[in-house]
Amino acid sequence: MLASYGLAYSLMKFFTGPMSDFKNVGLVFVNSRRDRRKAVLCMATAGVIAFVLHILIAYTDLGYYIINKLHHVDDSVGGKTRKAFLYLAAFPLLDAMAWIHAGILLKHKYSVIVGSASISDVVAQIVFVAILLHSNLECVEPLLIPILSLYMGALVRFTIVGLGYYCNIHDNIPDSSGLDVGGDATIKKMLSFWWPLALILATQRISRPIVNLFVSRDLKGTADATEAVAVLTATYPVGHMPYGWLTELRAVYPAFDKNNPSNKLNAGSPVTKSHIKKFTSCCVALSLTLCFAVFWTPNFSEKILVDVIGVNYAFADLCVVPLRIFSFFPVPVTARAHLTGWLMTLKKTFVLAPSSVLRIIVLITSLVVLPYMGVHGATLGVGSLLAGFIGESTMVAIAACYVYRQQKNNEMSNELVVEGEDAAPMSEVCSRTQMDAIEELAEEEEEEEEEEGRQ
Fold first, then answer.
1. Is the Cβ–Cβ distance between 232 and 48 less than 8 Å?
2. Poorest-confidence range of 46-50, 355-359, 391-395?
3. Chain centroid, CA 285 distance in Å
4. 62 C-beta neighbours (distance < 10 Å), count
5. Per-residue model confidence (pLDDT) at position 20
6. What stretch of H or E contains 407?
7. Measuring CA to CA, how many Å separate 46 from each of 11, 19, 83, 328, 339?
8. Alpha-carbon distance 132 to 122, whole Å?
9. N or C end of the chain: which has fewer CB within 10 A?
């Protein structure tokens, strides 16, 4: 039952997870109630498409090939997985509605409400699991216990961000955006802004399954392969904790940078680019300190794995090197988040699309090449993930430099145009002065000729 739910949930997050990046559309584009209606329409459409996709996978041969054949599960697990996938059909729509309003709240600096909603989501899931375990649902349909808890958590989160929006923002924004904030956003602009971010998230979601597959194949499916995948499974959440939150730094620029026309409504904000850079530097310094303190202190990371996750010391010892590699993740993650936030502010996310492709290329290349250098097991997996992150961050930096250079060239062109316009009146004055001088000389010559004729 647990395997069926886990497989169905992971498939749902892979197919519909990129919808969570519509939070950034609310953060950047929604300046009026009309913009919000357009964003909600986009998410409603995506939710309906996801609903249909879930039904197709649950009832057609498409689901059989995706679940049974691709994942090599038996008919019993496959049938339960498709049933769980059907039960989860409405979740993407509810989740997407919560994310779009979370983005609008972040735009107006109500991050406390968004954070409270996320915490309440987790608490609600735990509470409802405890309640449902004492009901007869455990005997009738145990698969519904985690699924109903998931729905209740999402409903609580949506209720909090929805009430937060209506109580604090809805009546304070105009029905339509004025020209001072760039006018009303179009659905085309929203989707053009969103799809590169969704592509990046999709590649991030697929990176770990690729790593697990290559690590297992490298060790020829032996017991060591199973152990390596288990080490990766244990180290992912522990290694992610000290740096995972740095990804949210990309929301800082759109929320505070005054160069974004959308923020002219919030002109009273004292936050400058210099403040954002200092804040980002402090965050990466804090993350690096946590990583090195936790993962490089002797026996400390092993103690976390033994006491929190419940593994034995021999297994925990295998996790030490992979966790130490995670210590270097904060630098590329922070660079990527900071530059992505700046590009989101400029609404130029299309330049980010190549970074997701490069990440997969570097990841697979590392997974193929590193075994020839004597790197195997979980160390191979985490090292390749780090290489993928560095490749992605490098491409984002190149894209940011390209956009920055374009901006500078446009500014220089505008300055030349202004100088040309300023110089035009002076040239007119000079030409008029020259014409006046010529006319005066011509008149003097005519007068001299007339005087000579009289003599």
1. no
2. 46-50
3. 21
4. 12
5. 80
6. helix 377-454
7. 16, 8, 21, 36, 28
8. 15
9. C
Question: Residue 336's closest CA among 389, 286, 284, 291?
Answer: 389
Please, which residues have CB within 8 angstroms of residue 25's CB and are 6 or more apart in sequence? Answer: 39, 42, 100, 103, 190, 193, 194
Q: How many residues does the chain have?
A: 455
* Nearest Cα to Cα of residue 340 among 180, 201, 184, 188: 201
Residues with Cβ within 8 Å of 50's Cβ and at least 6 positions away in sequence, in order, are 15, 16, 19, 89, 92, 93
Residue 3 CA to residue 78 CA, distance in Å, equals 10
Task: Supply the Cα-derived Rg of the chain in whole angstroms.
Answer: 30
Q: How many CB atoms lie within 10 A of CB 96?
A: 25
**What is the number of alpha carbons within 13 Å of residue 244 lying toward its C-beta?**
7
pLDDT value of residue 429: 46
Task: Quote the mean pLDDT of the chain.
Answer: 82
Of residues 256, 394, 391, 239, the one with CA closest to residue 326: 239
For the record, the structure tokens of 295 come out as: 């993962």
Beta-carbon contacts of 385 under 8 Å, excluding residues fewer than 6 positions away, are 207, 208, 211, 363
Which residues, 6 or more positions from 275, have their beta carbon under 8 angstroms from its beta carbon?
Answer: 256
Phi then psi for 169, rounded to 5 degrees?
-125, -40
Residue 69 DSSP symbol: I
**pTM of the predicted model over 0.90:** no
Contacts of 117 (CB under 8 A, 6+ apart): 98, 102, 156, 157, 160, 161, 164
